[in-house]
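FW: tagging you since you asked about this chain on Friday. Here's the raw sequence from the shared folder, copied in full. Didn't touch anything.
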Amino acid sequence: MIQRQIVIKNLAVNYYFARATDDTVPTVVFLHGWRNNAKIWTPILTSLERQNRYHLYALDLPGFGGSQVPPESWKTEDYAKAVREFIITLGLNKVCVVGHSFGGKVGIKLAANYPESLEKLVLVGSSGIRVESWKNRLVIWLAKIAKPFFAIRFLQNLRPRIYHILGADDYLATPELKSVFLNVVREDLQSELDRITMPVLLVWGDLDRETPLVLGKMMAERLRSARLLVFPKSGHFSFLDRPQEFVESLTSFINESGQSN
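HL: got it, structure written out here
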């Protein structure tokens, strides 16, 4: 894989790519989840690169990996626009976007609002349907009271441990993206799911605790042309738990004809 940077929405965006020998083959764009970066896809990219059947691209979404942090409080729509600009700027064709977790949420926005940018979508343990869980409510509540609460000197050193105990690690782990994270967890994309008509493959681990399988089933019901693939004994990172099965399923889906819009 070759590493490069490109300016997207006035930000330096880091990405990795490998071009196949045949210029006419499909392109696969990988989007990582929150607190991760493009390298999370390395086992999958390595396997696909050996096949020399696809153009492969994996980018560090702005604020992650080697990409610059957005100066404003971005929403999922801003990330979708950034990926769209990435695809247009590089002149990518026959695009299948593969998004994990938060990357899947970006993929949903992209497919719903800019369907001309891609032909197929793969959602892996994707977020997108907001569930009023205690964890989400807790994060939003913490954001409101954290600053005055932790201004008390003897509590400052306890901040990381308190957040960890309360299950708000994602919020704490990316301090430069706290406002972005709050925007993202508040968003519910169910109406966007209803507008997606392209072929969609949903990949879920049956033991996923971050985005439980029930969410995958809900997405499958709302999407017009989707099927749900469940990997047994796999968690939120099902593509790492079962890389060979994931690659086989992904390539089979990409190679299916007569489904593109």
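FW: Residues 134-177 form one domain.
HL: agreed, and The chain is about 40% helix and 20% strand.
FW: great, closing this out.
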